[in-house]
């Protein structure tokens, strides 16, 4: 394993034990240096940088994007990135698919649920272990998303990756991973998430394996914090709980491979050193992680069940105000107090497509069958809601204040229909009988009012 050098690494980490150190804030203009004086002050592009470093800008938005959306980072690195790619050769990464990806033999119209993709001893890296479940939109026009499951059993060695197609939202469910990135180190475990920006080069190491989790690959505009509207300035996800790593670099010479995802295809290029050579950087285009346990849910405190948008952690806009390319929504522990109300999710049909995953515990609308590591898909305009047990239980419950405990599920909700991959339809553990969970819902109507 290559050890990243960082001066700031010596500082105690306020959030957790371990070697990675972070700076708080979401979308801040950060500055950080792993060697004293490596970061130029007062200008971006000095005639000569200290330590013989090269200055380079990484633009995450168009140069002319409006202030407030404009994101870029200045890197001071041992070699410019042009030395970190050579000629490209196409490689096959058969399980990582991009939209549009429509298997004519697969029917995506339906309510689907999967058991967890089984853990394995097979040698799988972040790249080879990615299994696409659904795709939506079009990677070439930078709209839509893909939902993946990853199984990672082996660290990448002298191998690096970046996606020019997308930003990745990583939601671990088992195991611990280290993302050694150009801009610093992120250690990630279940109940945390990470955002890896488009174009960022990194290596993924297994700290505790096997590791399994979910990835939302966002082809479109970056994830942002949602507006809180009348909720005000606090609660939901608070900016200070997002953590961006301090600068960390490698000065490591070895035969290495950089794999690039570009327009849905994978390409490899050979170089003779580690590309993780940014000694100092400043800017607002950077990876971060977030502890989902710091999410402060706001909900119904008297009656009824609000729309799940109330639990939005992050939203990736689509250009149409209020209609997201992707919302990342969290269903976590919370108190249920609503009076004279059916408390779980109601029955509904949604113009948005809902892909859900279970991180741990039991989800209130599906007491059985939706298990940690499992996923479900309720595609555009496909009706769904509580299974029979959940319906009967909640319709007849004594409505005292009740804590929904030991539960954490999430939703990737997109305005676009999601298409199942061949893997999702035929190799992944699809539950054939999922829709039977509504079978025994009986007709109660008999023309007379009153309790049924
Ligand atoms: O379908 C689901 O379980 C997700 C969901 C939860 C909720 O509380 C309201 C609507 C909704 O789609
Ligand atoms: Fe739903």
Automatic annotation (TrEMBL):
It holds the Pfam family HgmA_C. Belongs to the homogentisate dioxygenase family. It is an enzyme of class 1 (oxidoreductase). The keyword Metal-binding applies. GO terms for biological process: L-phenylalanine catabolic process; L-tyrosine catabolic process. GO terms for molecular function: homogentisate 1,2-dioxygenase activity; metal ion binding. Its EC number is 1.13.11.5. Fe cation binds at residues 348, 354, 384. Its cofactor is Fe cation. GO terms for cellular component: cytoplasm. The lineage of its organism: Bacteria, Pseudomonadati, Pseudomonadota, Alphaproteobacteria, Hyphomicrobiales. Residues 294-445 form the Homogentisate 1,2-dioxygenase C-terminal domain. Keywords: Dioxygenase, Iron, Metal-binding, Oxidoreductase, Phenylalanine catabolism, Tyrosine catabolism. This is Homogentisate 1,2-dioxygenase. It comes from Breoghania corrubedonensis. Residues 22-292 form the Homogentisate 1,2-dioxygenase N-terminal domain. InterPro entries: HgmA_C, HgmA_N, Homogentis_dOase, RmlC-like_jellyroll, RmlC_Cupin_sf. The active site is at 305 (proton acceptor). Residues 1-20 are annotated as: Disordered. Homogentisate binds at residues 363, 384.
């Amino acid at each position: 394993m290559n050890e990243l050098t960082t001066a700031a690494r010596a500082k105690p980490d306020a959030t957790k034990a371990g070697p990675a150190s972070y700076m708080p804030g979401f979308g801040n203009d950060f500055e950080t240096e792993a060697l004293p004086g490596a970061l130029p002050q007062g200008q971006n592009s000095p005639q000569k940088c200290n330590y013989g470093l090269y200055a380079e800008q990484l633009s995450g938005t168009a140069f002319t994007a409006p202030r407030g959306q404009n994101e870029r980072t200045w890197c001071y690195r041992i070699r410019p990135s042009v030395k970190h790619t050579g000629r490209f050769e196409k490689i096959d990464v058969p399980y990582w698919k991009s939209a549009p990806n429509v298997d004519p033999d697969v029917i995506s119209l339906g309510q689907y649920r999967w058991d967890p993709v089984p853990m394995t001893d097979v040698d799988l890296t972040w790249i080879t272990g990615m299994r696409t479940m659904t795709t939506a939109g079009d990677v070439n026009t930078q709209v839509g998303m893909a939902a993946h499951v990853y199984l990672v059993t082996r660290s990448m060695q002298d191998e690096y990756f970046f996606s020019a197609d997308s930003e990745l939202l990583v939601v671990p469910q088992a195991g611990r991973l280290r993302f050694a990135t150009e801009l610093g180190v992120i250690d990630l475990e279940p109940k945390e998430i990470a955002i890896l920006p488009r174009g960022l080069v990194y290596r993924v190491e297994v700290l505790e394996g096997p590791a399994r989790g979910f990835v939302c690959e966002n082809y479109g505009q970056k994830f942002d914090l949602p507006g809180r509207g009348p909720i005000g300035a606090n609660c939901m996800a608070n900016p200070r709980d997002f953590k961006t790593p301090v600068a960390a670099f490698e000065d490591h010479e070895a035969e290495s491979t950089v794999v690039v995802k570009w327009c849905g295809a994978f390409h490899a290029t050979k170089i003779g050193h580690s590309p993780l050579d940014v000694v100092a950087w400043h800017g607002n285009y950077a990876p971060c992680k977030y502890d989902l346990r710091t999410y402060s849910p706001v909900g119904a405190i008297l009656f009824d069940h609000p729309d799940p948008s109330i639990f939005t952690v992050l939203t990736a806009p689509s250009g149409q105000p209020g209609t997201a390319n992707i919302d990342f929504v969290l269903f976590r522990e919370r108190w249920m107090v609503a009076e004279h109300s059916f408390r779980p999710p109601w029955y509904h049909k949604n113009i948005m497509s809902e892909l859900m995953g279970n991180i741990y515990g039991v989800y209130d609308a599906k007491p059985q069958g939706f298990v940690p590591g499992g996923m479900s898909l309720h595609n555009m305009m496909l009706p769904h809601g509580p299974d029979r047990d959940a319906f009967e239980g909640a319709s007849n419950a004594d409505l005292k204040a009740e804590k929904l405990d030991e539960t954490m599920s999430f939703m990737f909700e997109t305005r676009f229909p999601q298409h199942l991959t061949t893997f999702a339809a035929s190799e992944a553990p699809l539950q054939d009988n999922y829709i039977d969970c509504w079978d025994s819902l009986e007709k109660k109507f008999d023309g007379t009012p009153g309790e049924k």
